[in-house]
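Q: My labmate handed me this sequence with no annotations at all. I'd like to see what the chain might look like in three dimensions before we decide whether it's worth expressing. Could you predict it?
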Amino acid sequence: MTNPAVQPQGSQALIDDMSFLLARASALSNAAGNAALAEFGLKVRSYSVLELAAVGGRTSQREIAEFLRLDPSQVVVLVDKLQRAKLVDREPDQRDRRANVIVATALGRETLEKARTRVRAAADSLHGDLSASERATLTDLLRRTAFPS
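A: Here is what I predict for the chain of 149 residues:
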């Protein structure tokens, strides 16, 4: 990990900027997650879609896009890839026949269980400098930031 004390001169304002820190932490987390998921042919975004398809009930592509804060066209590409890998299926949405819901297949649920273990291990490694209490606090603060009431 890069030592924040070893930075180009004049970057202290950046190091103290919450938005920069969130973006950098996100980049580090995504890199660790993508590396952990590579053996399953997944990345953090496709893993997130698979997770929502497996535990979110009959979630529409639009709902997935809104929850992940992605453009709907990005979700279409992610679902296409997951469907080609036989990890999810598209089914007609009973609430709106013009829309599809995304449902994890048996293979998708099995893959998700294995992938979760790898993702947790990657997170443990990435956040190893934080105590359990600090992780819980950070998770709570991030949850409140990501899902304001």
